[in-house]
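Today's session is about reading a structure prediction critically. Students often jump straight to the picture, but the first step is always the sequence itself: look for stretches that repeat, for charged clusters, for runs of hydrophobic residues. Only then move on to the predicted structure, which in these notes is written as discrete structure tokens rather than atom positions. Here is the chain we will use throughout the hour.
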Amino acid sequence: MKSQGSYSILVVDDDMVTRQTFMKIFETEGYEVVLAENGLEAIQWIEKRPFSMVVLDVEMPNVNGFEVLKAIRKHYSSSCRPVIMISAYDSQDHILKAFDVGANDYVTKPIDIKLVLARIRAHITATQQHPL
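Below is the predicted structure for this chain, in token form.
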């Protein structure tokens, strides 16, 4: 199995503090982290290179997380590239929409970072055990 350092995470959030917080925590855990501040930038990164995991905010200006997720799913299946959606919305309709579009997981704000890290490890492990 690869070390965590060989896994890359694309973090997409329009809030700079959130992006920087995720970057510090994920890098401390040994992951390579790439940041995107909006949906368009995220789509450009997805088209340039693969990522082990995408942590994607739902609500962003111009291109929202659902649109970014649709673009990701054009390139990668959900079993090949897991996506965790992050949102302040905890309504069932919002969560179901995320899964319908192709999310692997959904975490609500405020973020429990230990929970997010556990979910990242679980998704990456599952991807490694069942690659396409």
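Discussion point for the tutorial: The CA atoms of residues 44 and 67 lie 13 Å apart.
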